[in-house]
Structure formats: structure tokens, C-alpha cells
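wait is this the right file?? whatever heres the structure
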């Protein structure tokens, strides 16, 4: 199916939106666009992209359902009235002004969230007198609650003709706002049907419960920190013991290696001594054998010498 966008100024709902929110006249011609198959949503698109979408007579551009801009206005079921959405509020906030831009305090925002029922409706009679006057001045239709503290989101609302105000927030957005205001994070949006006095008592009880939970959370955090420190100390002790065991094992290994080397050295020395003794004994045997062979050869010579010494002298020698 072919998809195209047209300027919001060509639609009948633009006149009422312009009057309600005091928007610039050229905005609906250049940046507020309506898709052909979903006229109940008005998109706020940057000028460059809007120019491409508006100058595409042959429908050659391929675009998805998301990422083209912010759904800034949403029509009611009857299609007769357009209300500012929460996403559109953040995009168009610099262009809005009183009376639809309602300034409020953090206490007012807490009262708003504490008084919500399950349909995101609020009985504005429980609000402060100043905030009630501001809502009355805005009159029926879309508006925005803008808290005076940085870091807290503004809220798109619909002011009803009677005493009700409806917040245009999803459950996750309510939860986020409660977190920003430091309220109970786990409560969500609950049904509020009690009278104002009961609501005040419930608010005090909620604050007391919050204080108790905060105390328990701090105690739990302290226990966790103590446990973490104990775990770190235990890990350090384990590391020290492991290091000591490793050092002891290393010393034992080195000692065994030294002892093994000493034993090997002694064995080598003993073997060398044995070999030296064996060589010496062998040399002694050889020497004795040589001496035994020389003794018989010398005996006849000694005998002849003895006999010659016993003969009488010759006659010539006597004369």
C-alpha cells in the first residue's frame, strides 16, 4: 500500500489545536504532518525530513512506521479533538506558553501521583488552591504540568469540564516520575477512592513506610559492604595461605633437588674411589708379578760369585 504524508493545516483539526496551544502558523505547513492511513495521529518532524516527505508525488520514498518523528497530537475516539501527547510535550515544550503551560511545585506533583486512580484520573479538589486555579484558567482540553525542579519530567494532561484531570502517561512513565520524585518505587498507580482526609493519612503512612524501607535499605547496604569487606579479607588470607603453601612446596622441592644432587655426588665419589682402589690393586699385582720373574734369574750369578771367593790363591800369587 502506498503511504504519504500531508500538512496538518489541510485538516479540520488544526484550527482548534492552533487556538488551544498558540502554535506558530507555519508549523502545521512544514513540520506537523498527518499520514494518509492514520489521520488520528499528528507527527512532529524536523524540517529537512518533512520537506522530503511532502515533495514525493510519485511515492518513491520508502519509510517505516517509526523513526520519522514524534507523535505529537492524538485525536479522541470521536476524532473531534486533538490532545498533546507526552512525547509531543517534550518536543513542543519550547513553543508552549500559559495558560496551557501550568507551573507547579514538587509537592503538587506528589499530590497528583498520590491521588491517581487506575484510569489515570485525578480529582483536582485534593490539589492545592493555586494549582486548582491554574487548571481552571487553562479550561477544558489539553495542557501540561511543568514542575519547577530540574530532572523531573513535565506531564501532559487533559483538563475535564468537571472536577477531573486525566494524565496522559503510560504505566512505565508513571513509575519513572515516581522515581524522579523520590516516591515509593514499588507502588505503581493504585486506585484512590478515599476522601481527602483519608488520602492525607495514607500519604503520611506511605512516607513512614518509605522511611522504614529506606532505613532497611541502608542497613542492607551496610551489611553487604561489611560482607564484601569480609570477603575481601578472606580472599586476602586465602591468597596469603596459598602463597605460603606454594613457597613451602617450592622450598621442599629445592631441598629435595639439593639432597638428590648431594647423594648423586657422594655416589659418584664412591664410585671414583672404588675405581682408583681397583686400579691401584691391579698395578700392585702387576708389580709383584714382575718382581717374581726377576728373582730366579739372579740366583746362578750369585752362586758363582760365592764359589770363586772360596778357591785358594794360585802359586804365582803366593810367590
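ok assuming it is, sequence goes like this
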Amino acid at each position: 500500500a502506498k503511504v504519504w504524508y500531508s500538512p496538518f493545516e489541510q485538516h479540520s483539526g488544526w484550527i482548534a489545536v492552533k487556538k488551544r496551544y498558540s502554535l506558530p502558523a507555519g508549523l502545521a505547513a512544514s513540520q506537523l504532518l498527518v499520514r494518509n492511513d492514520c489521520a488520528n495521529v499528528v507527527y512532529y518532524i524536523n524540517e529537512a525530513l518533512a520537506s522530503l516527505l511532502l515533495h514525493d508525488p510519485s511515492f518513491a520514498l520508502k519509510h517505516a512506521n517509526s523513526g520519522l518523528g514524534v507523535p505529537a497530537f492524538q485525536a479522541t475516539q470521536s476524532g473531534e479533538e486533538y490532545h498533546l501527547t507526552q512525547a509531543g510535550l517534550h518536543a513542543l515544550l519550547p513553543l508552549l506558553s500559559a495558560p496551557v503551560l501550568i507551573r507547579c511545585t514538587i509537592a503538587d506533583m506528589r499530590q497528583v501521583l498520590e491521588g491517581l486512580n487506575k484510569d489515570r484520573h485525578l480529582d483536582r479538589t485534593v490539589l492545592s488552591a493555586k494549582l486548582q486555579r491554574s487548571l481552571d484558567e487553562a479550561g477544558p482540553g489539553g495542557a501540561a504540568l511543568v514542575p519547577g525542579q530540574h530532572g523531573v519530567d513535565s506531564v501532559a494532561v487533559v483538563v475535564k469540564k468537571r472536577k477531573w484531570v486525566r494524565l496522559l502517561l503510560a504505566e512505565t512513565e508513571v513509575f519513572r516520575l515516581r522515581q524522579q520524585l523520590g516516591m515509593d518505587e514499588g507502588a505503581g498507580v493504585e486506585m484512590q477512592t478515599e476522601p481527602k482526609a483519608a488520602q492525607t493519612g495514607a500519604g503520611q503512612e506511605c512516607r513512614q513506610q518509605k522511611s522504614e524501607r529506606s532505613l532497611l535499605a541502608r542497613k542492607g547496604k551496610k551489611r553487604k559492604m561489611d560482607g564484601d569487606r569480609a570477603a575481601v579479607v578472606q580472599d586476602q588470607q586465602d591468597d596469603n595461605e596459598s602463597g605460603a603453601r606454594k613457597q613451602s612446596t617450592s622450598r621442599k622441592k629445592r631441598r629435595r633437588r639439593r639432597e638428590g644432587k648431594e647423594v648423586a655426588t657422594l655416589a659418584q665419589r664412591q664410585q671414583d674411589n672404588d675405581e682408583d682402589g681397583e686400579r691401584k690393586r691391579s698395578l700392585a699385582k702387576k708389580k709383584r708379578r714382575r718382581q717374581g720373574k726377576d728373582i730366579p734369574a739372579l740366583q746362578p750369578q750369585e752362586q758363582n760369585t760365592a764359589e770363586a771367593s772360596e778357591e785358594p790363591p794360585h802359586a804365582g800369587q803366593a810367590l
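Residues 186-199, 315-319 have pLDDT under 50 and may be disordered. so i think its the right one actually
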